[in-house]
Design goal:
Blueprint lengths: L2 E5 L1 H11 L8 E11 L2 E11 L6 E3 L5 E3 L1 H14 L2 E7 L10 H18 L4 E7 L2 E7 L5 E3 L2 E4 L5 E3 L15 H16 L2 E5 L3 H13 L3 E5 L30 H7 L6 H12 L3 E5 L6 H7 L4 E4 L4 H13 L4 E10 L6 E11 L14 H9 L1 H7 L13 H19 L10 E5 L4 E5 L31
Parallel strand pairs: 1-3, 1-10, 6-7, 12-13, 12-15, 13-14, 15-16
Antiparallel strand pairs: 2-3, 2-6, 4-5, 7-8, 8-9, 10-11, 16-17, 17-18, 18-19
Helix pairs in contact: 5-7, 5-12, 10-11
Bound molecules: zinc ion (2 copies).
Length: about 475
């Protein structure tokens, strides 16, 4: 079974500057990581970083060149045991794109790890060795088996992958993807094929995101949306057909009988799945349920990227938690059209794309999750459904496909540039586009250090050791 370690970008830079300060010497650290078993292998999610102080915690070794002191190891192991997380000791070697453990390293694992595994009592323990651009790992699991670390994913923007050795060149992307592979290479196409992406909401913006991802050749999608298609959705939902709304059976003329048949209209996820099957080869897990259902959120925890294209505060809350707790980069998008109730004039109008990246601020600390609205949604979802199109602050009232396409394409483009390594590694911003003037506005997201959602004290990297804010099922 394969194993991967996911780490927020900030934590990776902190670790990297500690291990490679430019003195070409050896340095050490420990990572506490939550552990998740998935159908795609074991995922380790870096939660806390302990830097070993040279000469104090990291000293000349008894067997090897340097070692962590017994005190430092014990402090870290006990902390990991309390957090119910894996203990991963890291040190550095020279070199750049390849790295491996020395014989002395392996002997020290064999001497030390069985005892540490007993103390941590549940989660695995292991070692990591870094070169400036590579990492190898030796993970010891509680059932006695050992596994190498296949990849380390820096869950930033751009997303970066570190391995023990440079990867072999992939096979050609093939005729179908020739034109786009000319942009990001056969390797880029291969990356897309191996990704699992979650889309929350399969309506106006979500259906365009799905269309983009399927045509790009993304391997696997999880799509969550509880809604059925209505005639008023047809102008915006890509892949929908007039027949999906059962126009004959649900016509107003039919009164209560027509109302009854509305419950048989096609779900938006079913439309998405049909459309995807006709357009590409993407496997799709289509869930016609609310993101508040634990089952929906659980289907998204091992995704590589998330898109939020749903318009409720509850969806924002769960999406935001998934991004930070499971270290999955994501983007929230939406269109706002504010109309003056008296005059009917357009007051404000924009299409927004907000990348939400672990450790780089969140929807909560930027005031985009409204506690009052959350409470409302939790108490009476049906009432809210009627109201939300009228007096809502930040989610769609009027809606048109062209504005949805702008934010959906900005979000998918950002994802594409990020995973294929084309994204310029500069500070990313949140973007708003005003279609009336053609202008784009940039906004820097805030990251509140004590945020209960995105900080280390909050959910960041806690994985399955913390409950997601879904409906509680005892
Ligand atoms: Zn070594
Ligand atoms: Zn936050």
């Amino acid at each position: 079974m394969s194993a991967s370690l996911h780490i927020p970008e900030e934590m990776m830079s902190e670790l990297h500057s500690h291990l490679f300060p430019g003195d070409h010497d050896e340095h050490g650290a420990v990572i506490a990581a939550s552990v998740m078993e998935t159908s795609r292998g074991t995922r380790l999610l870096a939660h806390r970083l302990f830097l070993a102080v040279d000469g104090v915690d990291y000293v000349p070794g008894q067997y090897g060149y340097r070692m962590l002191t017994a005190d430092f190891v014990m402090d870290c192991v006990l902390e990991c045991a309390e957090l119910k997380m894996a203990y991963l000791a890291a040190h550095c070697h020279g070199g750049s794109t390849s790295v491996g453990f020395s014989q002395t390293d392996m002997q020290s694992h064999e001497r030390g790890y069985p005892a540490l595994r007993d103390i941590v009592n549940g989660p695995p323990v292991g070692g990591l060795v870094f070169a400036s651009d590579a990492v190898a790992g030796d993970i010891w699991f509680p059932d006695g088996h050992r596994s190498d670390l296949d990849v380390m994913v820096v869950a930033g923007y751009p997303r970066r992958i570190l391995r023990p050795e440079p990867e072999l060149a992939p096979a050609g992307a093939g005729e179908q993807f020739d034109r786009q592979a000319r942009l990001f290479g056969d390797r880029g196409q291969e990356i897309l094929k191996n990704l699992k992406v979650g889309v929350i909401g399969a309506g106006g913006a979500g259906s365009i995101i799905i269309e983009n991802l399927v045509r790009l050749g993304v391997g696997e999608l999880v799509v969550v949306d509880p809604d059925r298609i209505e005639p008023s959705n047809l102008p915006r939902v890509v892949g929908s057909k007039r027949g999906d709304t059962l126009p004959q059976l649900t016509h107003r003329r039919l009164g209560r009988v027509g109302k009854f048949f509305e419950r048989f209209r096609a779900t938006k996820v079913r439309i998405a799945k049909r459309h995807a099957r006709e357009a590409g080869r993407t496997r799709m897990d289509a869930l016609p349920i609310s993101i508040m259902e634990p089952r929906a959120a659980e289907a998204l925890v091992d995704c590589d990227h998330l898109f939020l294209a749903a318009d409720t505060m509850q969806a924002r809350l769960v999406f935001n938690a998934l991004v930070h707790q499971y270290l999955i980069p994501g983007a929230q998008m939406g269109v706002k059209v504010q109309i003056d109730k008296e005059s009917g004039a357009v007051v404000d109008m924009f299409a927004a794309n907000r990348p939400v990246i672990p450790g780089k601020g969140c929807l909560f600390c930027n005031g985009l999750i409204d506690a009052g609205r959350l409470r409302e949604e939790a108490t009476d979802p049906e009432e809210l459904r009627r109201q939300r199109y009228v007096d809502d602050d930040d989610v769609p009232a009027p809606s048109v496909i062209t504005m949805n396409s702008v934010c959906a394409s900005l979000a998918t483009n950002g994802f594409l540039m990020s995973v294929t390594g084309l994204l310029d590694p500069v500070d990313f911003g949140w973007t708003k586009h005003d279609p009336r003037t053609g202008e784009f506005f940039e906004e820097e997201p805030r990251a509140d250090e004590s945020c209960q959602e995105c900080s280390e004290e909050g959910r960041r990297g806690r994985g399955p050791t913390r409950r997601l804010p879904t409906f509680y099922r005892g």
